[in-house]
């Protein structure tokens, strides 16, 4: 079984200029089913998350402004989506999907959220298509439930996980690790527990060398009993919003390194998809599909 969170609410109505980033959420499940990477029974649909878990991470005033649709126009522009009931529900379901994925990963070793990786959501605001920080909410949940004692967040999206860094800046039980483009958004970076900022056009060899060096080292040093992995495919050279120069094969190899280490050390891992903005939707879906394919090969 390859536990995967998916819900058709991801296809909520959007203006034309917002539809492309969301299209992969519909196509990705179809592709991994078509290629036999997963089966229908591997998918589960989350309910909206209990607000108590959201409020353990996000400030009440901000959460209320989302729930009551009173977020001001400037804040909505910063997020990049017009606020709507469907959008808020989607965020609440994504967060629960990641929480449920954590519980399933503790049984299966690994679990996925087709969406998620909303690492630009801060404790008191959202930005860059992120409203609620799914992995932060889930990390706090498993700590509060005493399902884990030390968490490592491995954020390999091309953009720094600035919201996650801010949320856990004073939390010793969570170690935040981000490898990202130096000159990519966000232009004002937060401070993770470890940040590696890469120069423009950093390509396969250098990129994979860093992953091979630092992920095993952090596992040895931090001794996490749970890992969150943000597997953004916007590290690709083709990505419209990324400035790195990696190939699809390097993306696949990166996933193999991280997931093999989790398996080797018997550390449950929850994977959220994160970004991917190449001009061809097929490129995005193929790169994300490889993450599921690698996990299936390693774990099952």
Automatic annotation (TrEMBL):
Limits of the Histone deacetylase domain = 31-283
- Keywords of this protein's UniProt record, alphabetized? Hydrolase
Q: Which domain of life is it from?
A: Bacteria
Provide the GO biological process annotations: epigenetic regulation of gene expression
Q: Which residue ranges does UniProt annotate as crossing the membrane?
A: none
Which molecular-function annotation in GO is an example for this chain?
Answer: hydrolase activity
**PANTHER family from the entry?**
HISTONE DEACETYLASE 12 (PTHR10625:SF19), HISTONE DEACETYLASE HDAC1-RELATED (PTHR10625)
Q: Its family?
A: Belongs to the histone deacetylase family.
Record's protein name: Acetoin utilization deacetylase AcuC-like enzyme
Q: Which organism is it from?
A: Frigoriflavimonas asaccharolytica
